[in-house]
Design goal:
The chain is an alpha+beta fold and 300 residues long. The protein is built from nine helices and 15 strands. It is elongated.
């Protein structure tokens, strides 16, 4: 295994790696402040915050295996108390996400977060490279108890490659919200027939070692990321590559909020006016901005 390039105590990054013996590609995601900032800004129920944290770790890990210049996003919609969950990441590592919680959360949601929080619905992954390009999107029904289960179902419908994920999100009073993801990817089979059995065995072994990684290890600020990869995959030769930094970043601004409110009809503005002010709250960072209805531009 090559020497680690991460400085001591580094956080918020994607660490690409490769298992030489079997030609498997992977990414290890570690999230600290970039995750704690958006989750701490909202008063989400714990099960909702954990699911959103896993979603942010997931899109980060999957994005590093794609070639794109723009935004890669996950969106889950259903008929449960969480009507919509969104997580996205840009090419340069800016992440953000939110959960639209409309109804009370069942007490046992952590045992099967997807069906009990989102309910029956769909999961979509989208690559958006700008207004002058075609969006690429994959959509499947939500099937599985956990987000990882749903993603595995998505991969089963894909003929491009095989992949597996392990996700975690935890909170403690000392370090706040932390999350992690481990992604293993098997490229399309173009090997010779006599190699297939060996590579299939290598894939099964890598999945078994991946399964031995605990949620606590993925989130442990005291456990070096490269040391974790070495523990899991050193028998088959694991190589790590330069990390890709991640950060929380929200696109909201007073100007954007004002432009959105200016597009509302007079009736909609009146409904939103409380004590002479229109209060707009960003879904991603929870920032508030107030506007004087009389000072806004007339609706177009």
């Amino acid at each position: 295994m090559t020497e680690a390039t991460l400085p001591e105590g580094a956080d918020d990054f994607i660490r690409p790696f490769m298992i030489d013996a079997n030609g498997l590609h992977g990414r290890l995601v570690r999230l600290g402040p970039a995750l704690d900032t958006p989750l701490s800004a909202h008063d989400y129920p714990q099960a909702v915050a954990e699911l959103l944290g896993e979603s942010l770790a997931l899109v980060s890990g999957l994005s590093a295996g794609l070639k794109f210049d723009g935004v890669f996003s996950l969106q889950a919609r259903g008929d449960g108390p969480v009507k919509m969950l969104v997580a996205d990441v840009t090419t340069d590592g800016a992440i953000r996400g939110f959960a639209d919680v409309r109804d009370p959360i069942p007490e046992d949601s952590a045992d099967a977060p997807v069906p009990r929080l989102i309910g029956a619905g769909r999961l979509a992954f989208t690559v958006d490279q700008g207004p002058d390009t075609e969006q690429h999107q994959g959509i499947v029904d939500l099937q599985g108890a956990s987000l990882a289960d749903c993603v595995h179902h998505y991969f089963q419908q894909s003929s491009q490659y095989t992949a597996a994920v392990k996700l975690a999100c935890r909170h403690d009073s000392k370090n706040g919200w932390r999350g992690g993801a481990l992604v293993l990817q098997r490229l399309p089979e173009d090997e010779k027939p006599f190699e297939r059995e060996r590579l299939e065995e290598g894939w099964r072994k890598a999945l078994a070692m991946m399964g031995s990684c605990t949620p606590e290890e993925l989130c442990d600020i005291g456990l070096d990321a490269d040391a974790l990869l070495f523990r899991l995959f050193h028998e088959d030769g694991v190589r790590v590559f330069p990390e890709r930094p991640l950060r929380f970043s929200c696109k909201c601004s007073p100007a954007r909020m004002q432009a959105a409110v200016s597009m509302l009809s007079p009736e909609e503005r009146e409904e939103m006016t409380i004590d002479g002010k229109i209060i707009v709250t960003c879904q991603f960072c929870n920032a508030e901005q107030s506007f004087d209805p009389a000072a806004l531009s007339p609706p177009t």
